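thought: fold this chain, then report.
action: predict
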Amino acid sequence: MKPYLFETAIFDMDGVITKTARVHAAAWKLVFDEYLRLREKRDKEPFREFTHQEDYLTYVDGKPRLKGIQSFLESRGIHLPAGNSDDAPEAETIYGLGNKKNAKFCGVLNTGGVEVYEPAVELIKKFRKAGIKVGVVSSSKNCEFVLQSAGVLDLFDTRVDGVIAEELGLKGKPDGDIFCTAVFNLSGMPGKSIVFEDAVSGVQAGQRSGFGLVVGVARSDNVEDLNKSGADVVVTRLDYLDLEWIQEWFSKKPPDLFKAWDKPEIIQEAYASFTSSRAKVSLNPVFMRTPKSVFDGKKKVTFFLDYDGTLTPIVARPDLAVLSAQMRDVLRRLCVKFKVAVVSGRMRDEVEKLVAIKEIVYAGSHGFDIRGAGIEMVEPKAKEAMPLVEKTLRTIKESLGDIPGMLIEEKKFSIAVHYRQVSIEADIAQIKRTVENAVAEEAGLRLIEGKKVFEILPAIDWNKGKAVQWIMKALNLSWEDNAIVYIGDDTTDEDAFRVLSSKGMGILVAESPRASAAHFCLSSPDEVEKLFERLLK
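observation:
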């Protein structure tokens, strides 16, 4: 067995590891029905009970306590003051209702104890035995108490719960802050990690943060809801998955786009191992779409495009990657019919000059710097990291000196060390050691290895996938009304492929097939141009 392609696994607690989701739901029902009865008696408001399907799963499940209360009450047209954290359970405030629910929840646990889902615990033990680091997340402030009561607290290498989230100022689900924090605590990256979630809001958080595999755990009749919210696969039991199946997922290679254009059997063959090896694994139906169905005119198409290796061939030096007259012409025509953005590792002003088409939105430095079509943004945390990047740049220059063929590209928010023209293996090994040591010495940096290049970036929860989502929001592009297509060729483009995996379309540009989160592949920038010409006709 080759080394595993995934490094970390993050489990939600309630409903995935422990059988406490039902206790939470029951406690919420007691609290809300009691409060709604009070309003009926006092204010003559018609009573409508709090239900599991319509209310708990929609407004409360998976969210931080206070946010869940507010969401449900607002759905009923009820607006209460926040109050204070020490409000009595009888107080008619958001905090008061939250404290009442907590009291009822803890009372049930103290009486009946905590049960676990044994298949989940067994999978966690297999991960640990294989050297995969495991984290647990929860919106609950009772997470540590629950895990301790269940006897499984020691199984986790990190825990990010409601208490820790409040201390760090993390956003709750469907934002991915708690998942990403757990992964970073384990020195991992979302793209090489798995999320296990039973709540729609948690699945959305994993999908938005570009996790390599998002597993929906259907503890009720909600397979379709979990798929729609972004789960890559949905299972009813975690013993339907094993490490070999997950390794296969991370090893999957996308089929050729033109060969699969209107041939679902080619796509089905590509995913056969995921749909047939486990009869009770539900694969997200988005993976089974043909390219033709994406471009059928039912949705508006928006293209996000990498530059080097996608619009231009990979060349010996970055300054030689000049857009051809034919590609610029087809891009101009493409902009008339579709929205287009270029998301590049190059600095934004540089790629903007290279493409020189004003209708395009440009995202440079891997999405840290965005401008075009009336929108503009520089990622604040990337800006804060600039002094650290400059310090590391000086260190690398001093350590490496002037190795023949090496090129160090200064990108303001990041550093690229190119070794395509370095011919001596010992020099390449020295470059690799130097950049790895430089990143290891600074907690605020991360390293990505691309095509004959080492990229040093700030260790923040931002990448090309996040940039795509920011641009979509800024341009009011919804997943429901738009077909979002991302075309790229390198490691950093995988973050965007993963964000699009269960909703849009990722297209990898590669001379030969390789493992990728993209749906389809093209062999060269010439084939990218061929795709554009086909769509324009």
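thought: worth noting. Residues 287-379+462-536 form a domain with the Rossmann fold fold (CATH 3.40.50.1000).
final: tokens above.
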